[in-house]
Structure formats: C-alpha cells, structure tokens
Design goal:
Keywords: Hydrolase, Signal. Pfam families: Abhydrolase_6. This is Alpha/beta hydrolase. This protein has eleven helices and nine strands. The protein is of the alpha/beta class. Strands 1-3-2-4-5-8-9 form a seven-stranded mixed sheet, sandwiched between helices. A two-stranded antiparallel ribbon has the order 6-7. Helix 2 links the parallel strand 2 and strand 3. The longest helix has 16 residues. The protein is globular. The N terminus is likely disordered.
C-alpha cells in the first residue's frame, strides 16, 4: 500500500469504542444443580479504554451471584501510553508528534495475552468471554486458537469479521460508512506517532457533540464527561487493519451470542446485522443467539441491570 494512502486511511480509520481500568474480580461462583461451577465472565474492553468501565455490569452480576473479571488488554489501563503533552496544560503541538508505545501493540500480542488469561480462568471452570466493540477482535482470536477453553462468546455490538478481513474493510461498506466515529477528529499522523490519537480532553463543543452522538446519545452530558474522562488518548494503529476473521473450524465450535444495540451510531445496526448474517452463513450449524437492546454504543452501561440479566441467562 502506498505510504500516503495508508496515512490517509489511518487518519480516517474508525476506532471501536471506549469501554473498559485494572482487572476487577468479584463474587463467588454459584454452582449448577449438577454440582458443576457456573461460568466465570471475562470482559474485554474496546478501543481507548480499560476494564474499569465494565464495573456497573460486574457489580450487577455479583449481586446475582456470579464471578466476573475485566481485563486490561496490552497497552491499556496501567500500561497505557499517556503522552506528557496530554497533561494539563496541554502542549497540542507536541501532542501531535509524541511517539506512542501503542505502536508495538498488535492483534497477535493482544490475543496471546487474553488467551493466557482465559487459560488460567478455565482451570477453575467454564468461561464466558464477553467483548464489546473493538474487543470483538480479541475474543474472536481466542476462540480461533483455543475453542475448547471457551464455553460461550458474547459480542456486545462488537466486531466479528467474517467475509471481510479487517475493521477498516467493514467501516467502508455501505452499512459502515454512516458510523459517527468517522467524523471524530484524530490528532497527528499515525505513521509518526504509531497510534490513532484522540484528545478526549478537548473542550471544543463540536467535538463533544460528535463523541456524544457516536457513543452516548441516550445519556446525559455528565455521563458522557465521566466516560471520556477515563479514556486513554492512544489506540493501536494496527488493530483496525489486521486480518481478524473467524475460523469456522474452531470459532464455529463455540456457542456465540450477539447483543444488538438498536441505537448504536458507532457500529450502526445494519453493520451489526451484516456481521451476524455472515457468521450465520459461515457456521449454519451454530448460528448466533440474538438479543436486542434499545441502546447507544455505551448507553447500557448507565442502566446495567438489563445487560447483566441477559448475561446471567447465558450462564445456564
């Protein structure tokens, strides 16, 4: 790919969305009537995020008696790349050029990390692996590699690449082009910084409105500010351009659920349905179990009881 073309694509590439701080485990695992332990939920965040924003859902699952853990993928959480220039007062010129350690984060390294987590959790019982947005790539990768360690995959408006290899390829389809994330401005040149960089601390009202439209149109301004306050500025520039397709011979062996979000403007509903249909065609013997919520990309986090009820229902 010509260098200038790749730069252009990187600047406009969509990120999956925000969601997810340090790993959080809660609650003891109840047993089935058979005496077998119930599954442990392992939550995987999307872009620019960490495990912390899963807390509302995990708390609700704990109240229902289930064990759960939310992970920080490589380069996220306490491993995040936070440029000095991003701090207050911001140096926006330096922020546009300062290199990021996210340049070294690949899908392969992320899947390897998550596979190790799943392997250790699976030693104590079944695992339900839950991914949101860009986190769908990582849970797909784990199921491609070690399907025997995963009892169920759950995609919450998450990328599941089937006929097209990359997130970028899906975003430039007719179903993906209306995504509101494509209008959110990036900072600097990814070829120089090694990351897709966003200034979540911007006070520009146009920027804030674009972010709200993309991620939390059904939330309040206060909730939006609380969410983006926890976002890290850098995401790997490689993730959206790496082949992340399912392997029907391995991934196709794992039961899988898709939670459709009807009002999602980051991964529009037609794009969600496109990926679902492709996966069902690739594994007709094992189609998606579907659930639908009226929610924006992150709106369900502000009313987590509904999501936790859906997830608890998958544990039986």
């Amino acid at each position: 790919m010509p260098r200038t073309t790749r730069r252009t694509m990187l600047r406009t590439a969509a990120q999956g969305a925000l969601v997810g701080a340090a790993a959080i485990g809660v609650a003891a695992t109840p047993a089935h009537a058979s005496g077998r332990p119930s599954p442990t939920f392992v939550f995987v965040h999307g872009a620019n995020s960490s495990g912390g924003l899963w807390t509302p859902v995990i708390v609700e699952l704990a109240a229902l008696g289930y064990r759960a853990v939310a992970v920080d993928l490589p380069g996220h959480g306490l491993q995040a790349s936070i440029p000095v220039s991003y701090q207050a007062p911001q140096d926006l010129d330096a922020f546009a050029t300062e290199p990021s350690n996210m340049a070294a984060v690949t899908l392969d390294s992320t899947v390897s990390f998550l596979t190790d987590v799943v392997r250790r959790v699976a030693a104590h019982g079944p695992v339900i692996l839950v991914g949101q947005s860009l986190g769908g790539l990582s849970i797909t990768g784990v199921a491609n590699r070690v399907p025997h360690l995963v009892s169920r995959l759950v995609y919450i408006s998450a990328f599941c690449c089937v006929e097209l290899p990359t997130v970028y390829d899906y975003y430039v389809t007719p179903e993906g082009l209306p995504s509101a994330v494509l209008t959110i401005p990036k900072v600097g040149d990814p070829a120089q910084t090694g990351a897709l960089r966003t200034n979540w601390r911007s006070a520009d009202p146009t920027f804030l409105e674009e972010v709200r439209t993309a991620f939390l149109a059904d939330g309040t301004e206060e909730q939006l500010r609380a969410i983006i306050a926890g976002c890290q500025p850098d995401e790997s520039a490689l993730m959206s351009f790496t082949d992340a397709r399912i392997d029907p011979t391995t991934w196709g062996r794992v039961p899988h659920t898709f939670v459709r979000l009807t009002d999602d403007q980051a991964i529009p509903l037609p794009l969600q349905d496109k990926m679902i249909a492709e996966a069902d065609a690739a594994t007709p013997h094992n189609k998606f179990d579907l659930h639908t919520l009226t929610s924006s990309h992150l709106g369900y986090l502000t009313r987590p009881q509904t999501m936790s009820t859906i997830l608890a229902g998958l544990a039986h």
